[in-house]
Structures are given as structure tokens and as C-alpha cells.
Model the fold of this input.
Amino acid sequence: MFRFILMLAVSLMLMTACGLQMENYQGQTSRDDVENMGMNNEATEETENPRSISKVGDTWGMKQDRELIKESAQELPGVEVKRVILEANKVWVTVDIAGEDEMSEKEKEEWKAQVEEAIYQAVPSYDIQVKIK
Done:
């Protein structure tokens, strides 16, 4: 008799657990939601990532990064970029600053820091070295 009651209780628990309607609960994530994260609203293979491999040369790449670096450094008043060298995750930027002949070493270091910060804001994925020439 005890076995019968125990089996009845276990089967009752299993049947009620399987019958729950999980999609009605707030905060529930289904497997489809997880699999489709980052996909377009349309049913396509394209992701919404602008740095995807199918868009190399249009939205990202060494040429585009070099242009971003040059533009971001030249936004500072009196700064002219002479050379940008990219190698792996490092970038060396040579700049010419108006009135640099009269600057002290401390002022030059402050300018370097400003140029590095401007470049970092544009392309944060590089280790940046700035040289004032």
C-alpha cells in the first residue's frame, strides 16, 4: 500500500511538472531566442554586426582604421598627421604640431596624451604610440 501511494505521488508530481506553461512567465528565454540573438528581424543569414567578414573593405579594415586615426588626430587644433604605421595591434603616429619649437617637454607630453586619447576614442583596439616631429 505504501508503495502504491508513493508511486502515485511521484507520478502526480511528474505529470504536473510537465504541464507547466513556461512561455507565459515573464523573463523566460526560449532556445529559439538564444539561437537567434544578433540576427536581423528578417530571416536571413546576415548578422547586424558591421564588422562581419562579408563587409571587409566597406566598413572596416586597415585602410578605414588608418583614415579614422588620421581624421581623429587632425580634429585637434594645430595638429597635422605626417605618418600612420599599422602593425598587428600597434599603431605609430607621427604628427606635426603648430608651434612645437617653442614648447617645453612637458607641453609636448601633454599634446602626445591628447592625440593618443583622440585616436583611442576613434579606434580603441590599438596600442597607440605618438611621436611629435
Summary: The radius of gyration is 29 Å. The beta strands are 79-87, 90-97, 127-132. DSSP finds four helices and three strands in the chain. The first strand starts at residue 79 and ends at 87.
